[in-house]
Amino acid sequence: MNEVLKAIRERRSIRKFKPELPPKQALEQIIEAGLCAASGMNKQATLTLAVTDPQLRARLAAANCRIGGWPDGFDPFYGAPAILIVLADKSRATGLYDGSLVLGNMMLAAHSLGLGSIWIHRAREEFEQPEYQQLLKDLGVEGEWEGVGHCAVGYIEGEAPQPPARKPGRVVWVE
């Protein structure tokens, strides 16, 4: 089977990660795959914030818990040590779609490198908060950005889940 199609079939969302940080080179390859995603009119109007700093990761996890309504101490990133946050230029009508393609590419790339990943929501709500708008400014990021999602990445703890059966009736051919 074609390697790309194989990765698409085998990739699963991982909900338990080892604490060890993957090598920076692997994270760079995952980010590069995201940068290669299709985008509306090829504007490439997304930004990836690569977070490996444990303190910032902890702040993001706490904010994500507050937004999601989970108790303090819950880790919405399931222990993943690297969080790749995809943001979209607010002025682009295709930003959400473009960012979604970036996240999809990154999750497939992580799988192809033997790493696990999961898409975690609530990036939009996080980056609407003044604290995270200021973070972007402090990092030298200019413009208006909307959070699309977090790609939590790391080594899988245990076995990857088996794929569920695909629901029938989800294709209509018009020939």
Structural notes for this entry:
This protein has one domain: NADH Oxidase, CATH 3.40.109. The chain is 38% helix and 17% strand. The protein has six helices and four strands. It has helices spanning 3-10, 24-35, 54-68, 95-112, 123-126, 130-138, and strands at residues 46-51, 82-89, 116-120, 145-154. Helix 2 runs antiparallel to helix 4. The protein is globular, with a radius of gyration of 17 Å. The protein starts with a helix and ends in a 21-residue tail after the last strand.
Q: Mind telling me which CATH architecture this is?
A: 3-Layer(aba) Sandwich
Low-confidence stretches are none
Briefly note the CATH topology name. NADH Oxidase
Q: What share of residues is helical? A: 25-40%
Q: CATH class, anyone?
A: Alpha Beta
Q: Mean pLDDT, as a whole number? A: 97
Strand order of the largest sheet: 1-2-4-3
What is the CATH homologous superfamily assignment?
A: NADH Oxidase
The rounded Rg comes to 17 Å
Strand content: 15-25%
The count of strands amounts to 4
Return the string of H and E elements. Answer: HHEHEHEHHE
Number of domains: 1
Structural class: alpha+beta
What is the distance, rounded to the nearest whole angstrom, between the alpha carbons of the first and last residues? Answer: 26 Å
Sheet having the most strands: 4 strands, antiparallel
Q: Indicate the overall shape.
A: globular
Alpha plus pi helix count: 6
